[in-house]
Amino acid sequence: MVILRNYGLDPDGESLLASIRVSPIAAVISDPRLPTNPIVAVNDAFCDLTGYPTDEIIGQNCKFLAGPATEPWLTERISAGVRERRPVLVEILNYKRDRTPFRNAVMVAPVFDAEGELKYFLGSQVELPDDAVGPSASRHAHAVAVVKTLSPRQREILQRIASGCRSKQIAWQLSLSEKTVKMHRSLLLQKIGTTNVADAIRVAVEAGL
Residues 62-98: pLDDT tens digits? Predict the structure, then answer.
């Protein structure tokens, strides 16, 4: 994984980067503070999925995978989520570097800093089989089942994580100590079966939290 020098990440970005680096799910980080909200980091799984090398991804707007048959109303749904700073999940037709079309469950979620300022967007993609019904019905069912194993407090915290909130913000919103929030976060990550927040966000959005 490479980040070009002119797209240096701050500590929040570095933390997010560490999360997608270990994720098996194709993922990118974009920076809405820069013109066109360009991709500033990408993991190996994204390169493997799309066929694009890192230097052809960094600096691109996330729409670069669109092609002739990409559904414009779904592209707009993603754009609306970005404008409204909320998580969104759509099944959309995209194109690989060799122009092979593929059905893709795309998730985009905002990431805020401890003061509530929008810093980044996390994007992740899962290629769907040709006979998939809806935005990966099996993944949705699995995500719902996993979320049901969480305690009410853990679900509450996961929902806020998926909305882009940091531990400090969640602690303030729920009148908890930051230490308590981090304890619940660690437990819910274990139940989800991951060690990183990027995958937890994906599960939350797939479950419809």
Answer: 889 998 888 888 889 999 989 998 888 888 889 999 9
Burial pattern 99-114, b for ≥16 Cβ within 10 A else e, equals eeebbbbbbbbbbbbe
Contact (Cβ atoms closer than 8 angstroms) between residue 206 and residue 136:
yes
d(CA 29, CA 93): 20
Q: For residue 177, which amino acid is it?
A: S
According to DSSP, the residues that pair with 109 across neighbouring strands are: 122
Listed in order, strand segments (DSSP E) in the chain are 26-30, 39-42, 88-95, 101-112, 118-127
Residues 165/169/171/172 CA torsion (nearest 10 deg): -140
- Cα atoms in the 13 Å half-sphere on the side-chain side of 130: 1
Q: How far is CA 107 from the centre of its chain?
A: 5
How many Cα atoms within 13 Å fall on the side-chain side of residue 124?
Answer: 26
pTM above 0.85, yes or no: no
From residue 95, alpha-carbon distances to 47, 63, 67, 73 in Å are: 13, 10, 6, 17
As a whole number of angstroms, the distance between CA 124 and CA 142 comes to 17
Find out whether 19 and 124 touch, Cβ atoms under 8 Å. Answer: no
